[in-house]
Amino acid sequence: MNETVATPLAFDVLDADFETAVVQRSHDVPVLLDCWAPWCAPCRSLKPVLERLAAAYEGRFVLAKLNSDENPQVAALLGLRSIPLVVLFKGGVPVDQFNGALSESQVRAFLEPHLQLPSEAEQLRREARGAAEDVALALLRRAHGLDPDDAAVRSDLAERLCARLPDADAAAEARQLLAPVPEALRDDRQRALQARLDFAALQPSADADSLRQRIAANPRDHAARFDLAALHAHGGDFEAAFDALLEIVLRDKADAREQARARIVEWFTLCPDALLVDRARRRLAMYLN
């Protein structure tokens, strides 16, 4: 069984919440991931050392504890071969690691190079968290000006701007912030922000009735179905939007099918109804097989 959470600075992590609790959180604070197992004697000796240091450093890092026996997905992701394995995440990526039960002084020596005081840009980003929208935007723009390469600042600013959609200026600024990050290197948060921007840009000029008439006249008018799906989604009817896109997946075997599949997956992150997303996901898998 996973251990009981001792303090807010040390907590258990699972396969299911690894992305949020470790990867995403490491944009805010360094996360030290301790991969252990109940049968591992060195793990048992290292655990109290790490917990003492998490408390002693008073929030300069947090300790995430992963039972590698019970969470094989993360273990496989890390290429885990021996434990204890301790990995430090910063900015959404692993930056350093060590194996074995080090002494407290050795762990401190490992940590210190990575736990410098926050930069001015980071201090502004933290200040923006609890600020009103206009003040937060001003703080984050200052932070981005100080450190244009800070991925956490860029994502926070893009998120604040996306809250102003469909404002065209906000959308353009958010796109500029996300553009330097290649698609393959984006984290879940950045992909979700891009999905919101792409969704806001879908503005079909035709009305729903005329689109339905086009589809009735030509059931393979996939452009009309795409536009109808966008109209439904912008109106908050994701069920009808998914139906329209799934119909394309069912009818087409070429490029339109792949475009519809990609759009459905993208809109899963935007739909607030988890049950509806689950049904659409199962139908999509059935149609693709």
Describe the structure.
- This protein has 289 residues and is α/β, with parallel strands linked by helices.
- Helices cover 57% and strands 10% of the residues.
- The chain is built from 14 helices and five strands.
- The chain has helices at 18-24, 41-56, 72-77, 104-111, 120-129, 133-146, 151-162, 168-178, 188-201, 208-217, 222-234, 238-251, 255-268, 274-288; strands spanning 10-12, 31-36, 62-67, 85-90, 93-99.
- The chain has a five-stranded mixed sheet with strand order 1-3-2-4-5, sandwiched between helices.
- Strand 2, helix 2 and strand 3 form a beta-alpha-beta unit.
- Helix 5 packs antiparallel against helix 6, helix 8 (168-178) packs antiparallel against helix 9 (188-201) and helix 11 packs antiparallel against helix 12 (238-251).
- It starts with 9 loop residues before the first strand and ends with a helix.
Topology:
Layout: E1 10-12, H1 18-24, E2 31-36, H2 41-56, E3 62-67, H3 72-77, E4 85-90, E5 93-99, H4 104-111, H5 120-129, H6 133-146, H7 151-162, H8 168-178, H9 188-201, H10 208-217, H11 222-234, H12 238-251, H13 255-268, H14 274-288
Parallel strand pairs: 1-3, 2-3
Antiparallel strand pairs: 2-4, 4-5
Helix pairs in contact: 5-6, 6-7, 7-8, 7-9, 8-9, 10-11, 11-12, 12-13, 12-14, 13-14
Could you name the key traits of this structure?
289 residues, Glutaredoxin, Serine Threonine Protein Phosphatase 5, Tetratricopeptide repeat, 3 domains, 5-stranded mixed β-sheet, 14 helices, 10% strand
Total strands: 5
- Write down the overall mean pLDDT: 90
CATH topology of the largest domain: Glutaredoxin
Radius of gyration: 23 Å
CATH architecture of the largest domain: 3-Layer(aba) Sandwich
Query: Tell me, what is the CATH class of the largest domain?
Result: Alpha Beta
Q: Ends: how far apart?
A: 37 Å
The unreliable regions are 1-7
Domain count = 3
Which class do the helix and strand fractions yield? alpha/beta
Please identify which CATH superfamily of the largest domain we are dealing with: Glutaredoxin
Shape category: flat
Strands ordered across the widest β-sheet: 1-3-2-4-5
Q: What percent of residues adopt helix (DSSP H or I)?
A: 55-70%
